[in-house]
Structures are given as C-alpha cells and as structure tokens.
Design a protein that fits this description.
The protein is of the alpha/beta class. The protein is about 40% helix and about 15% strand. It is built from 15 helices and 14 strands. The strands form three sheets. Strands 4-10-9-8-7-5-6 form a seven-stranded mixed sheet, sandwiched between helices. Strands 1-2-3-13 form a four-stranded mixed sheet. The chain has a three-stranded antiparallel sheet with strand order 11-12-14, with helices on one face. A hairpin with a 2-residue loop joins strand 1 and strand 2 (about 45-50). The longest helix has 23 residues, at about 325-345. It starts with a helix and ends with a helix. It binds 4'-deoxy-4'-aminopyridoxal-5'-phosphate. 4'-deoxy-4'-aminopyridoxal-5'-phosphate (PMP) binds near residues 62, 145, 207, 212 and 240. It comes from Metasolibacillus meyeri. Its EC number is 5.4.3.8.
C-alpha cells in the first residue's frame, strides 16, 4: 500500500496544526511513529484514504460510528438539518423528541440536558455532584478516561496513557488533590478509600464497563459495592456511559447491569456521528442546574438541530430488531478467529470482548484492571497495528483502545479481518 498523499498531507499539517492532529490519540506516536493515514470518505464499514486505499474500519471514530459511515437514514436527517437550519439558539421540537427517546431507552433519566461533547457532559455531572452535595472530592478509577477537563486528567487511561502522560501539565496540584484514584475492580481499595474520605466525596465517577484501557467488565459485585457505599456516605454515583450507551444494547450499560446511578453522562453514539454530549439523572439532582438551580451549564451549540436530528435518526436505526445480536454474533466469530490465529503462530494474547467491542492485549494475564492492561506489549502492538493497516484493516493506534463493530460489518469483512490477523501474527 502507498501512503504518499497521507505522508505529504501530514508534513503540511505539521506546519499548521499542533502535532498535525486535532486529537492526540490520532497520532501514530504510540505505534512507532509515521504519518497518520488521512481518510477521504467512508461508506458503511469501510473508509478510503486520500491515496485511495480501502480499509475495514474498526475504529468507528473511537465509538460513535455504530451504524457505519454515511448511513442513508442518518444522512437524510443531516441533509434535512442542513437545508432547514443547523442552529437557531432557540427551543426546538427536535430536542424534546430526542430527550423523550433517550428517557424511554434509559429509564434512569428523569431529566436530561444536551451539550456538545463527552468532556462537557462529564464535567457538568461533576459540577452538579459538588453543587448537590456541597462537597468537593471525587473518586475515579485508574485508567478510566472521562474527557480532558482538569479534574479527570488524573490516571486517565486511553489517550493520556498511550502518550505516557497520565497527568497533564497545567492541571493544578490543588485540583488533582481533590481526586482520589482507585484501581478498577478492586473492592478492598475502594472500601479503603471510602472509609478514609467517604464523608468528603461528592461523586464517584465510573465507566460501568470500561472502554478506555480496552474493554473491561466489572467483576460481579464490584459496582454494587460502589453503589452501596456511595449511598452509605451520601456521595453520588456518576456513570460515564459515553462509550457504553447504545453500544451493547438499545440503552445504557447500567440498565444491563441492573444499576441506577444518580447521574449519567452520554455522548458518542447518541449523536449519530455529529458532535454531542448529554447528561441526565434523577429529577431533584438535575434541578440543581440553571435556570432551576445554582449549578451553571450552558452552550451556544447545545441541542443544535443538526446533532438532534442525527441522534434521533441513529437511535431509530439502532432500535431495529436484531441489530445488537448480529454485532455480538460477528464479534464472537472475530474473537474466535483471533484466538485461533494466536494459537497457530504462538503469539501470547488475551482478548476481552463484550458483544461488538473487543480488545487484544499482548499479555498472558487476564485483564481486569489498568495495571494489567499496561502490561500489554506496546511495541508488539505497534507492529501489529502497522501490519493490519497495510492489509486494509484500520484499528485505533493505541494498545488501550477497543475494536468496534458496526451494524454494517458483514461476515465477509470478519473473514477478511481474521485472515489479516493470521498474516500479521505470522510476521510478528
Ligand atoms: N468519557 C469517556 C468514557 C470517553 O471514552 C470519552 C472519549 N473517548 C470521553 C468521556 C470524552 O468525550 P469527548 O471526546 O466527546 O469529549
């Protein structure tokens, strides 16, 4: 494969855009360097770079593109928005329709508010938890990423971990000391933290199923403990469902897990590919937000008609029967194929998969926390990534990210992918 145009574009991008990328996770720094491939267009499960190479896309834009690229139903909704006005700065019917759809799918949401990104959504839930409880400290879990605002850039997985900077420069010590980080899936450590700081904790922020040091499910009883102790100490539970909502079923992960968080942050999938964030939760807690209450949150683009209509259309697609079952079926075939190829070529891996999302760790240990995910061999992953890319399979350029299936992947795509994995493993 030739990447001539991508390489030239990256050289140019470096002159104008910091690091040549608009989000650090897009850089190939963690996979041995090189010019990131620039995409020209996408259709269904494929996208095509500016050198005209075709890729099967497992990046799915880090999660949102669950219905593939250019889905006709979503495209129609976006075209309608483009023709009839993308931004009014007023109330619209779309935002009410979409809020009702989200509430129906996620019964925990008494009230919602839309904004423009996952970062904003989580940031606001943290503010609300503080406003509601009158406390300042937060608990988060090591390796979980919740966006790029100060309070959560502490042991933050995914992008920051990949680039080897778990704490960002510019985050004041005074902010970092308000955040207590606990290993995921470690009940003893969590109990200990609550016994020590429980009375000062405003909120406990958690990805109910982790997506940011690969796909990691909670051990039985772990989230239940988090919820019980939060209640005992008067702290709020905040589920960051920016990756998980509508990824595994039509609704939120916490519903699947039988949990009722106080606040929920949403993003990615719910925008059908357009910028979005949303948060919601129990009525009395949500009424802390302006104009009803003293916690402030606002946004010029919040609830814009384009994102609302794309989101509505996306959920309409996802509501069709059999969608998630098919992603699970294909995910299982892919996982099996990967494991068999690893066995054949004597490559040590661990695969974590939940339905249409999976992660390959180049380690022999079962991965249930960030410390174990870190042990996945980044150098091998980097070579694997490039070998897959050269065969037209696009993965996230980080050992910590998940592969995401979409509604558009077919069994043929999976077969092609397994053959590519087999070859890549033979070359490692
Ligand atoms: N929370 C989680 C769990 C995420 O995975 C992300 C993004 N990867 C965010 C929050 C931040 O979302 P955004 O990039 O839209 O600001």
């Amino acid at each position: 494969m030739k990447y001539t145009k991508s390489e030239a574009l990256h050289e140019e991008a470096l002159q104008h855009i910091v690091g040549g990328v608009n989000s650090p996770s897009r850089s190939y720094k963690a996979v041995g360097g090189g010019a990131p491939v620039a995409m020209a267009y996408g259709k269904g499960a494929y996208f095509y770079d500016i050198d005209d190479n075709r890729y099967i896309d497992y990046l799915a834009a880090y999660g949102p593109i669950v219905t593939g690229h250019g889905h006709p139903h979503i495209a129609k909704a976006i075209a309608h928005a483009a023709e009839t006005g993308v931004l009014f700065g007023t109330a619209t019917e779309h935002e009410v329709t979409f809020a009702k759809m989200l509430k129906e799918a996620i019964p925990t949401l008494d009230k919602v508010r839309f904004n423009n990104s996952g970062t904003e959504a989580v940031m606001t839930t943290v503010r609300i938890a503080r406003a509601y409880t009158g406390r300042t400290k937060m608990i988060k879990f090591a390796g979980c990423y919740h966006g790029h605002f100060d309070q959560v850039l502490v042991a933050a997985g995914s992008g920051p971990a990949t680039l080897g900077s778990p704490d960002s420069a510019g985050v004041p010590e005074s902010v970092a000391t308000e955040v207590i980080t606990v290993p995921f899936n470690d009940p003893e450590a969590f109990k200990h933290a609550m016994e020590r700081w429980g009375e000062q904790i405003a909120g406990i922020l958690i990805e109910p199923i982790v997506g940011n040091f690969g796909i990691v499910e909670p051990k039985p009883g772990f989230l239940e403990l988090v919820h019980e102790m939060a209640k005992q100490y008067g702290a709020l539970t905040i589920h960051d469902e920016i990756i998980t909502a509508f990824r595994f079923h039509y609704g939120a992960a916490h519903t699947m897990l039988g949990l009722t968080p106080d606040l929920v942050a949403l993003g990615k999938v719910i925008g059908g590919g357009l910028p979005i964030g949303a948060y919601g939760g129990k009525k009395d807690i949500m009424e802390t937000v302006a104009p009803l209450g003293p916690a402030y949150q606002a946004g010029t683009m919040a609830g814009n008609p384009a994102s609302m209509q794309a989101g509505i259309a996306c959920l309409e697609v996802l509501k069709q029967p059999g969608i998630y079952e098919e992603m699970d079926r294909l995910g299982a075939i892919l996982e099996q194929g990967i494991l068999e190829a690893a066995k054949k070529h004597n490559i040590t891996i661990t695969v974590n998969r939940l339905k249409g999302a999976l992660t390959i760790y180049f380690t022999d240990e079962k991965v249930v926390n960030y410390e174990q995910a870190e042990k996945s061999d980044g150098e091998i992953f980097g070579r694997f990534f490039k070998l897959m890319l050269s065969q037209g399979i696009n993965l996230a350029p980080s050992k910590y990210e998940a592969w995401f299936l979409t509604t558009e992947h077919t069994e043929e795509d999976i077969t092609e992918t397994i053959a590519a994995v087999d070859y890549a493993f033979s070359q490692l």
